[in-house]
Specification:
single chain; alpha/beta; six-stranded mixed beta sheet; four-stranded antiparallel beta sheet; 9 helices; about 30% helix; about 20% strand; binds adenosine-5'-diphosphate; binds magnesium ion
Length: about 250
């Protein structure tokens, strides 16, 4: 493969024997990770704090290089792709995503050039934040932050989600970014994802077994290793961690 090739992020996302140790601390965050995610699959990643969930997403984003093995999109090792072109096709909401002291529109279109108002409104709708935005007197021109309106945690999370969606990404990586979103809003987002994100591979890190989002696959991490992986139904009958979490949350 040519190094730094510009590829279209189409195809399955494959982890082949991925190991990762943080160089600064020597902590091995991921061990022998093998996953084959089909294009368009929706995957839920769960596990205790420190189990390696965020690291998994950050390796997909190429924040770090893997030591052994590799991550592939189709036949292409992501390490050989043009970084800007590659990341530009990924929608990512980090765990600690933040908003700038600017308008809501600017926060949604942040990092993208030539985003139309129509695209901003589309993304806001897909993130189920559009109604609340239009209720502000200044609408999309409302300032947020110190000199603007104070938004709830759930509103901030949905604006960050809209920022990731406005790129019309091929791959969507969400790191625990729906934690402050209530159940009925989650339902709306789920419906939008189903209609608008067909063919988009989606990986959601969460502590919750989401009631409304239909996952093709669940991955449970523990100390950097995959301890359970399968469809939600198969994991429910496995009697393991996923089943316990699902039961706890139903109560
Ligand atoms: P999770 O998202 O599941 O809470 P992380 O992927 O953040 O887990 O962390 C996995 C392990 O890697 C933990 O032991 C954590 O302390 C360590 N770790 C995470 N980020 C860094 C970093 N930037 N430098 C060094 N160690 C890190
Ligand atoms: Mg994390």
């Amino acid at each position: 493969k040519e190094p730094s090739s510009k590829i279209l992020l189409k195809g399955d996302l494959i982890f082949k024997n991925v190991n990762f140790t943080y160089p600064e601390t020597g902590i091995q965050a991921l061990k022998q990770i093998n996953i084959h995610i089909k294009q368009g699959e929706r995957v839920l990643v769960m596990g205790k704090t420190g189990s390696g969930k965020s690291t998994l997403l950050q390796l997909i984003l190429r924040y770090y290089n893997t030591e052994l093995g590799g991550i592939f999109i189709g036949d292409t090792n992501i390490a050989n792709t043009d970084l800007f072109n590659y990341r530009n096709q990924i929608g990512y909401v980090p765990q600690d995503s933040f908003l700038f002291s600017d308008t809501i529109a600017a926060n949604i279109s942040f990092g993208q050039e030539g985003v139309t108002q129509q695209a901003i409104e589309w993304a806001a709708n897909a993130a189920a934040i559009d109604t609340e935005i239009t209720q502000f007197p200044a609408g999309y021109q409302t300032l947020v932050g110190e000199r603007g309106v104070t938004l709830s945690g759930g509103q901030k999370q949905r604006i960050s989600l809209a920022r990731a969606l406005v790129k019309k990404p091929m791959l969507l990586l969400l790191d625990d970014c729906l934690s402050a979103v209530d159940s009925s809003t989650e339902q709306k987002i789920a419906t939008h994802f189903t209609t608008h994100l067909k063919g988009v591979t989606q990986i959601l890190v969460s502590h919750r077994v989401h009631a409304h989002l239909d996952f093709d696959r669940v991955i449970i991490l523990e100390n950097g290793e995959i301890i359970e992986m399968g469809s939600p139904t198969s994991l429910l009958s496995l009697g393991g961690v996923y089943q316990k979490m699902a039961q706890l949350q139903r109560q």
